[in-house]
Design brief:
Structural class: alpha/beta
Strand order of the largest sheet: 1-2-4-5-6-7-8-9
Bound molecules: ligand C2E, magnesium ion
Shape: globular
Oligomer: single chain
Number of strands: 9
Helix content: 40-55%
């Protein structure tokens, strides 16, 4: 698997899918998350949940991550121009990548090569990444934001989270982990956690994204609790770039025809 993954980059077996990110205040698509896929010649398409941990272990994630970042910026710029929309792209950064001393150059390079405006790039880190690389975290986050890019904490609530991080580190968004979103409509305690994360974030001036929105009930719950943004299978699965425009159109139709936001506000 290790050797196969090593070859995957050069043989161009890696590719990206893009999942729409929707504003719950406007019902419009405002961006996308780029998600890695590996088309293994014998095993078919392999999930990142399987190969990212291996890539992280072997250090291959540094090269793979750089490729994904560059590709995502280029693709996002093309989609913005093609669709005439202001779209941001969220790219996942692994702990190994975040600790690289040339991280800033890599990000800056991806932005300048693609001509994607820096404000349209968001980097997703997990709480665990911030915990592992403690020494220069603050400086790195500040530098990323000085470039004009944004920072989001991914899978919020599942890692070794410490509220002191939120005081220490400048972040733009928290992504509530999908496990909370899925339980929120049936379990009162999960609902309380979601509501509390949203309230706390807003008081701190941080926006909240919910991931794993799969049903109209999830959407209604989140929108009523003033969650800012959402992504999930209810809107669209991650799709190839060529299918992104159609996914956007379908989401916009869904909001317009069903008057989803009006319905939620009245409820
Ligand atoms: P993540 O960053 O938390 O990405 C969200 C995952 O949830 C994606 O899985 C996405 O397909 C899935 N998802 C989205 N909406 C729904 C939904 O409504 N229901 C359910 N059940 N799942 C949903 P995916 O694509 O398999 O990626 C898994 C993880 O692999 C990502 O979690 C991320 O940690 C990692 N990953 C993916 N691409 C990259 C990358 O380019 N670099 C790095 N370092 N990690 C990546
Ligand atoms: Mg993510
Ligand atoms: Mg996540």
């Amino acid at each position: 698997m290790d050797t196969a993954l090593r070859h995957a980059l050069v043989r161009e077996e890696l590719f990206l899918h893009y999942q729409p990110l929707v504003s719950l205040t406007t019902g419009r698509v405002i961006g996308m998350e780029s998600l890695l896929r590996w088309h293994h010649p014998k095993l078919g398409v392999i999930s990142p949940a399987t190969f990212i941990p291996l890539a992280e272990e072997t250090g291959l994630i540094v090269a793979i991550g750089e490729w994904a970042l560059k590709r995502s910026c280029r693709q996002a710029k093309i989609l913005c121009d093609e669709l005439g929309l202001e779209l941001s792209v969220s790219v996942n950064l692994s702990p190994r990548q975040f600790e690289q001393s040339n991280l800033l150059e890599v990000i800056g390079g991806a932005l300048s090569e693609s001509k994607l405006p820096p404000r349209n790039l968001q980097l997703e880190l997990t709480e665990n990444t911030l915990m592992i690389n403690s020494a220069s975290n603050l400086e790195k986050l500040q530098q990323i934001r000085q470039l004009g890019a944004r920072v989001a904490i991914d899978d919020f609530g599942t890692g070794f989270c410490s509220f002191s991080y939120l005081l220490q580190y400048p972040v733009d968004r928290l992504k509530i982990d999908q496990s909370f979103v899925m339980k929120a409509v049936t379990e009162p305690n999960a609902a309380t956690v979601v509501r509390t994360i949203v309230a706390m974030s807003h008081h701190l001036g941080i926006k909240v994204i919910a991931e794993g929105v799969e049903t109209p009930e999830h959407l209604r719950f989140l929108a009523q609790r003033k969650c800012d943004e959402a992504q999930g299978f209810y809107f669209s699965r991650p799709v190839p770039a060529a299918a992104f425009g159609a996914a956007v159109a379908a989401i916009h139709r869904m909001f317009d025809e069903r008057k989803l936001l009006e319905e939620i506000r009245l409820a």
